[in-house]
Structures are given as structure tokens and as C-alpha cells.
Design goal:
The complex is a heterodimer. Chain A is of the alpha/beta class. In chain A, 35% of the residues lie in helices and 30% in strands. Chain A is built from ten helices and 14 strands. A six-stranded mixed sheet of chain A has the order 6-7-8-3-9-10, sandwiched between helices. In chain A, helix 6 links the parallel strand 7 and strand 8. The radius of gyration of chain A is 21 Å and the shape is globular. Chain B is an all-alpha fold. In chain B, the strands form two sheets. Chain B has a two-stranded antiparallel ribbon. In chain B, strand 2 and strand 3 form a beta hairpin. In chain B, helix 1 packs across helix 14 and helix 16 runs antiparallel to helix 17. The longest helix of chain B has 39 residues. The chains are: A alpha/beta, B mainly alpha. Chains A and B meet through helix 2, strand 6 and helix 3 of A and helix 1, helix 13 and helix 18 of B.
Chain lengths: 292, 410
């Protein structure tokens, strides 16, 4: 089976507002990160891919199936929405069993798969906990369990780590990496750290348009040799911020350690440092801003 | 798959507070309305009793007198209740139409309208109009005599003219006025009626019709709360998106929810009917009659199931379409409006949502109206089916649109 997502010239409007404009992407097996600020159109793209909203133009196929064939698309995709929840009066087992039934699994299959999935997402011991009593992290883990229970070829997760504590976030990212074997996991987020830790291939969406598509190393190469670190007087900070793109500040008394992006060495005491994805992302966003 | 979904949805209903409120309100209402007085009064009529109850008369003179009395009051108030499609519609005549109606009255009675008006005022003046009992007694005893030599055929022609003035569905249609005039029963009639109650209804079926009369009033409104509560739960619990993304069809999701709600709303009705029926079943035995033990199931299924079906189906449709509690207001208006606009407490089913049978017995009259009742119930079953199909279509549309059809989706 062809495991891929092909998007060509995708357009989606909400009334007069253009949520997606001529988006083209090609996604293969493994983790794929979709990065972008809030309101960039990431959720809309996820919904088009899961047949939850109709596109206005372009072509989209998931594993060779056009998104218009919603029944087939739903069979081969698992979706974890941004604000996943379930009926508060159900416990973890009941909720997963209910959603597994909606995924078309018969009783015998559910009897095997539901405990297995709860085990996988580390909720087996909490299977009697009511959804209303679950923490954000537990809900997300239940959410990922329901998304993968019918063994879909494509898993789409929308902002899965927002609001989680650092430990939960790391655990959740690891879980996503584990399930990404032999399938596509499309991770949408505005948290750069999540992408950096899990994805090799990424796309950056801004204002409904793709402004970067490629490997993480390619994104990093955009700022190669342009990231500097320097210690300056705290009073100078405002002046520096106006002149350069500052991606990090650590103030200690009257001095401030800053990280800036600049095409040339900004001041004599500045030293070049290794860029990270956050620097590259900020640079990209700044460049896009400049284009507008 | 459908069975498993159905059971899960039943579980959802059982866990809902709205459902328990429905059960408590329904059971309290029914137990308070269904008194044991009827059971105690249920005796074989004996010759020489002062009163045997009332029955619909087939006496043409009495039909003419009763119908003209009603017509006189309607013309005087210039207010006619009609049910063109089974739903209430009040009619007020124009001056020229009213004049024509007055002339028809004069032609039937041989008296001028002014004389008839005076006689009516004199009659009602004898009663205390503040007391409801006196008002009812005044209406019951008010009669308008036809002129000498006036035939039943002429009367029918006159009523056809009235129907042309007030439109379809009035009390002046032949099928209506021939079943609307009540007279006190004779011993023979009472005996015949009692025998029919025993042989045709075995007591329990007649009692269940009375049960359905009261239950029908409640069930015209109460199930809407259960239906709306279920239909809104996905949005409230924020599970719409995740359920929309699942392969299960809209027909499976909505169909199983609907059936589960229907069954769960029906269970307290059937259980209450069964419990209230028992004294009548044993009373029948004291008369040496084998009562119909399954009447608690058969009669409510015919009388109440189509009503619950349409109320729930409409609740699902309106709620899925609007994502609001608008269905509660629509259904309450329909239920209460229909009830207060009702012109009779027994029979005259038409296409009314609440079919009334506020009497224990009248088995022969019921037998004559059974086809009309079946038409009414069949219509609502069909309408419920249409609403359900529309709900599934709306649900699928929402699914492709990513949420509400009316409100902004994020």
C-alpha cells in the first residue's frame, strides 16, 4: 500500500477569509512536523486531511485515496483533535471501547485491542478513571490510543502537547515516535521543541501558505553562521532588540546574555554559536514578515 | 455493530440526569392522575339506576339540536375552531360571512337570529357563569330546536354551507357532528356498553386507553428534553470532532441514538402501564372475564409510541440542525398549543399529536374510530421516519462542514 499524503494547490476559504492558499506538500512514512504560529491554518489543513472540512480547490490524496472519499479516508486515518475530550461520565476503558466501536471494530477485536492500547499509552492502571477526572496528559494519551486503535496508516495529531507539563510532553513525544513505524504521523504544533525532538521532515505554514518544506537540517542551514551570542549591559537591551532579532535573553543583574540573529557579526564581543530549530523558525518567520 | 452501538447509547441515556427527571415527572404525573375511583365505580349497570353516563347519540333530531346550539354559540362569538390538517386554526368570519351564517341558522330554526340570540342569553343567564361546573351544565343543556318539517337532509345541506364558510376541519362536517352530540344513556345502552367493555376490551384495554390519554399529554413534551440532551451532549462534551472523524456512518450513529432514546423513554411508560393495569386485570377476573394481560404493551404501543417517535425525531432534527435547545420551545408550543386547542376529550383524532380518550369505556364508539386512529398514528410514524432521515442528512452535512451548520466553526 502506498503510504503517502499528496497535496497540490490546496485552497480553503471560510467566507472571505483565506485559511489555506495554494498549499502543496508531499508527505512520506514516518514523523512529519507541521509548524506554524497560531492561526496559520494548521488545524484547517488537518481537518481537510481527515475529511472534516471540504476544500475549495486543489487536490488532496491520502494513500492514493482522494479526500472526497470520506468513508475510505476515515478508515485509514486516526485523528487526535486539538481539544480532544470524551463524555465525562465514561471511564478510560468505556471511552476507548466506544470510539473503537465507531471505528468499526467488532466485539472480539475490541476485547483484545482496548486493553492493549491502554497498556501502550500507560493508562491500563487508570482504566476505571472517569474522563472528567483525567489530567490533560491522561486525556491526550487516551486521545492517541483512540487515534491508533484501528491501526490506521495515517495518524494526524493537532497540537498534542499544548498545556502538558515537561515530563508529560517528553513522554508523549516518545509515544508518537514509537507509533510512527510503517505509517505517517503528521504532527501539527507551534511548539518548536516538539518538532526538533521528533521530526526529520517538516513544513512551516504561515498565513495559510507553506513557507518552508524540507528536512530539519535544511531549515537549520538557513541560519547557519547567523546566530550570535553576546553579553551586553542590560540598559542596551532595548536598543539591540530594535536593531536585531533577539531569540534569547538571560538577564543577570546589570548584564544580559543574549542570542541574536544577524547576517554579520553585530558587535565585537559577539561570538558565533550553533543555531537551533527555534532560531531557524524565528528567522523564517521574520523573513516572511519582511516579505509582506 | 448497530446492536452494540444501541446498547452503548442506552448506557448513555441511563447516565443522564435529564432522563431521571423525565422518569420521576412522568411516574408522579401518571400515578396522581390515574385514580382508583374508576375502578371502584366499575359495576355492571342495574335497572332503575338514576344515571348511567352519556353516549354519542344517533338520533337525528338530537344531533340537529345539539349541532345548531354549538353553531349558535360559535356564530355569536364569531370564533370557530377548525383542524384543517389536524392542527388548530381559529377562524373569524367577515361581516358578510357572519350574516350568511346567521341566515343559515334562521333557515334551520325558523327564528330570526336576534330571537335566537335573546333565547341563548336567557338560557345562559340562568347559570352562574363564574362557576366552571355551572358553565358546563349551561352548555350541556343548551339546545336549539329546528323548525317544524325541517329534514335531516336540509340540515346536512345547511352544514355543508357552514363548512364552506369556515373551511375544512370544523365541527360542522358530517363525520364530526354525527359523533359529537352526547345524551344520557338508557339502561339498555349502558348494559350494551358494559358488555362491550367486557367482551371487546376485557377491562384492561379500556383502562389502558384512559392511561394513554393522560400519558399522551406528558409525552407530547417530556421526551424532547431527553432527545435534546442527547443530541447536544457531543457538542457540550467537545467530542464532535473525534466522532466525526470515525468511519461509522451517520445512519449508524443517529439511528442507534434515536432507537436507544426511544426504548429508554418507552420503558417507564410500559412499566407504569403494567403496574397500573394490574388492579383492572384482577377486577376483570371478579366479573369472570379474562382481561388482556398484554394490554399494557399493545395499547401504549399503538397510542403512545408514534407520539414519542415524532417528538424525539423532531428533537433530534432541530437540535442537530441548530445546535441549540430550540426544539424544547418548538415542542412545548406544539404540545401545549395542541392540547388547549382540543375540542373534545374523546375521539376526533384527525392528525392531532395528542389523541384524547378521557373516558373508561365507550368501546363501541372506539371501534368505530379505530381506522381514524390508525391513520393518525401511521402519519406520525411516517413523519418521524422522515425527520430521522433528515437528521442523518444534517449530521452528515455537519460532518463534512466540520461542525455546526449555523454557528461559526473553529
Amino acid at each position: 500500500m502506498d503510504i503517502s499524503i499528496e497535496i497540490k494547490g490546496l485552497t480553503k476559504n471560510y467566507g472571505k477569509k483565506k485559511a489555506l492558499s495554494e498549499v502543496s506538500l508531499s508527505i512520506g512514512p514516518g514523523m512529519f512536523g507541521l509548524l506554524g504560529p497560531n492561526g496559520a491554518g494548521k488545524t484547517t489543513l488537518m481537518k481537510v486531511l481527515t475529511a472534516l472540512v471540504e476544500k475549495n480547490g486543489g487536490e488532496v490524496t491520502v494513500c492514493g485515496v482522494p479526500v472526497e472519499d470520506s468513508r475510505q479516508i476515515r478508515n485509514m486515518t486516526g485523528y487526535l483533535p486539538q481539544d480532544f475530550s470524551m463524555y465525562g461520565n465514561m471511564n478510560a476503558y468505556e471511552a476507548l471501547d466506544y470510539l473503537a466501536l465507531l471505528s468499526g471494530m467488532n466485539r472480539a477485536e475490541r476485547k483484545v485491542k482496548v486493553p492493549e492500547m491502554l497498556e501502550k499509552v500507560n493508562l491500563r492502571e487508570k482504566q476505571k478513571t472517569k474522563v472528567r477526572s483525567m489530567s490533560g496528559g491522561m486525556k491526550r494519551r487516551l486521545g492517541i490510543a483512540q487515534a491508533i486503535i484501528h491501526d490506521p496508516k495515517v495518524i494526524i495529531v493537532d497540537e498534542p502537547t499544548a498545556g502538558l507539563d515537561p515530563e508529560e510532553r517528553v513522554r508523549f513525544r516518545n509515544l508518537l515516535c514509537e507509533i510512527a513505524k510503517d505509517r505517517i504521523v503528521l504532527l501539527s504544533t507551534h511548539i518548536v521543541g516538539d518538532i526538533e525532538a521528533t521530526c526529520e521532515n517538516i513544513a512551516v505554514l504561515n498565513q495559510g501558505k507553506i513557507c518552508f518544506d524540507g528536512k530539519l537540517t535544511k531549515l537549520l542551514s538557513l541560519v547557519e553562521g547567523k546566530v550570535y551570542s553576546a553579553e551586553i549591559a542590560a540598559v542596551e537591551l532595548e536598543k539591540v532588540k530594535q536593531k536585531y532579532m533577539v531569540t534569547g535573553i538571560l538577564t543577570t543583574g546589570s548584564t544580559a546574555n543574549i542570542k541574536i540573529i544577524a547576517d554579520d557579526k553585530p558587535f565585537p564581543q559577539a561570538r558565533q554559536v550553533q543555531p537551533d530549530v527555534e532560531d531557524a523558525y524565528m528567522y523564517l518567520m521574520h523573513r516572511e514578515e519582511g516579505k509582506r | 455493530m448497530f446492536g452494540a452501538m444501541f446498547l452503548k447509547e442506552c448506557g448513555q441515556v441511563v447516565k443522564s440526569l435529564t432522563y431521571y427527571i423525565y422518569v420521576v415527572v412522568f411516574v408522579l404525573f401518571m400515578t396522581s392522575q390515574m385514580s382508583s375511583e374508576d375502578l371502584e365505580n366499575l359495576q355492571e349497570p342495574l335497572p332503575g339506576q338514576p344515571y348511567y353516563g352519556e353516549t354519542v347519540t344517533k338520533d337525528e333530531t338530537l344531533i340537529m339540536e345539539g349541532t345548531l346550539a354549538k353553531l349558535m354559540q360559535d356564530v355569536w362569538r364569531n370564533s370557530f375552531a377548525t383542524y384543517p390538517l389536524g392542527f388548530y386554526k381559529g377562524i373569524t368570519l367577515t361581516d358578510s360571512e357572519k350574516k350568511q351564517a346567521e341566515e343559515i341558522l334562521a333557515r334551520c330554526t325558523g327564528k330570526s337570529y336576534e330571537t335566537l340570540e335573546e333565547e341563548m342569553k336567557r338560557h345562559f343567564g340562568q347559570y352562574d357563569q363564574v362557576s366552571p361546573e355551572e358553565t358546563m351544565a349551561a352548555s350541556a343543556s343548551y339546545k336549539v330546536s329546528v323548525k317544524e318539517g325541517f329534514t335531516y337532509a336540509e340540515f346536512q345541506t345547511a352544514m355543508e354551507e357552514i363548512c364552506r364558510l369556515v373551511g375544512k376541519g370544523s365541527s360542522y362536517e358530517k363525520t364530526e357532528y354525527e359523533n359529537e352530540v352526547y345524551v344520557p344513556m338508557t339502561y339498555e345502552q349502558a348494559k350494551e356498553e358494559f358488555d362491550a367493555l367486557c367482551s371487546q376490551d376485557g377491562f384492561t384495554r379500556a383502562y389502558m386507553r384512559l392511561f394513554c390519554d393522560y400519558a399522551g399529554i406528558m409525552l407530547a413534551i417530556l421526551p424532547v428534553f431527553v432527545g435534546v440532551s442527547r443530541a447536544l451532549r457531543d457538542r457540550r462534551a467537545k467530542v464532535q470532532q473525534v466522532i466525526f472523524s470515525k468511519p461509522a456512518s451517520g445512519a449508524l450513529i443517529i439511528g442507534s441514538r434515536y432507537l436507544a432514546n426511544l426504548v429508554m423513554v418507552g420503558i417507564p411508560v410500559i412499566v407504569t402501564a403494567f403496574l397500573l393495569q394490574q388492579p383492572y386485570y384482577y377486577k376483570a377476573k371478579t366479573f369472570g372475564i379474562q382481561g388482556d394481560l398484554l394490554a399494557f404493551l399493545k395499547v401504549p404501543c399503538l397510542w403512545l409510541l408514534p407520539e414519542i417517535m415524532i417528538v424525539l425525531a423532531l428533537a433530534f432534527l432541530i437540535t442537530e440542525f441548530t445546535d441549540t435547545i430550540a426544539a424544547v420551545f418548538v415542542q412545548t408550543a406544539w404540545g401545549i398549543g395542541g392540547l388547549f386547542a382540543g375540542d373534545t376529550l374523546v375521539g376526533n383524532f384527525g392528525l392531532k399529536l395528542v389523541t384524547r380518550w378521557n373516558t373508561l369505556g365507550q368501546s363501541m364508539y372506539y371501534a368505530s374510530l379505530k381506522n381514524e386512529l390508525l391513520r393518525n398514528k401511521g402519519f406520525y410514524c411516517l413523519l418521524a421516519g422522515v425527520c430521522l432521515i433528515l437528521t442523518i442528512l444534517v449530521y452528515e452535512r455537519k460532518r463534512r462542514k466540520g461542525g455546526s451548520l449555523i454557528w461559526k466553526n473553529i
